[in-house]
Amino acid sequence: MPNLLSRYATPFTTGLFLVSLISGIALFFHYGTAAFREMHEWLSMVLILPFILHVWKNWRPFLAYFKRVPMALSLGLCLVAGLAFAWPAITGTASGAGGNPAFAMVNVVAGGTPAQVAPLLGRAETDVVTALKQAGFTTANAATPLSEIATASGKDTMALMATLAALKAK
Fold first, then answer.
1. Is residue 97's pLDDT more than 70?
2. Is the pTM of this model over 0.90?
């Protein structure tokens, strides 16, 4: 069995890396996002096992890399690059650009009041307020931002958005 695992570690690492590479490029260019996102996430997780087997199989040559400057330099640069991309989200200084546009729009709509959002739904503000109250958003009124209505009613913003989407569908 160890020989079998050893024999397939590198081929599986290569194959799964190619899947991750191709799906990552597609996601970067927003091509086939629905088809590639789950594939990319799950198969990248599966890639961990053959990677570990590959490193285990090649342990001595792998350790030799750490005796040379290129490994330290490469790992340092990768760490800096990763932190540069993650830092705005970690520190809360992200501008919102580059995130999921659907979530960005949810935040825009949630910042509006029922009176401001009603025309988007093709409804009167009283219809929106009534629908929210019927759905358990007890603090709903025409002048309060939707996110505040959700919080004050003890519910989350996505539940409020679901209520509004159902109102639009009627």
1. no
2. no
